[in-house]
Amino acid sequence: MKSITIIATFQAKPGQEAVLKTALAALLPPTRRESGCLLYNLHVAPDDPARFLFYENWASQPHLDAHLKSPHLTALLNRVEELCAAAPQIQLWQRVGE
After folding, report:
1. Which of 5, 67, 69, 90 stands 20 to 30 A from 78 (CA)?
2. pTM, whole model, 2 decimals?
3. Which H, E and C letters describe the chain, residue by residue?
């Protein structure tokens, strides 16, 4: 099976930067404990404190699929309209040479 890399970006609504940051950071511990999670890091843009990026590596597509159904992620996704200026931008990549 090929590992999967996800790059997901979130743009906070004005005034929601701290709330979104807290909500996104709360995903780190439970996600890092998920089966197949190889790497799950949250970043903030140095020039825009309202822009966040997850860099994720998953062992396989089935592991990613399970993550997408996890209670902690679905709870966050249910708050996107409240916290984000737009829908998250999600890019899926596969590693070459596996």
Report:
1. 5
2. 0.93
3. CCCEEEEEEEEECCCCHHHHHHHHHCCHHHHHCCCCEEEEEEEEECCEEEEEEEEEEECCHHHHHHHHCCHHHHHHHCCHHHHECCCCEEEEEECCCC
Q: What is the spatial distance between Cα 95 and Cα 5, in angstroms, rounded to a whole number?
A: 7
List the 89-94 sheet strands across, edge first.
37-45, 48-58, 4-11, 89-94
Q: Measured between alpha carbons, how far apart are the two ends of the chain, in Å?
A: 8
* pLDDT tens digits in sequence order for the chain, 98 residues long: 689 999 999 999 999 999 999 999 999 999 999 999 999 999 999 999 999 999 999 999 999 999 999 999 999 999 999 999 999 999 999 888 76
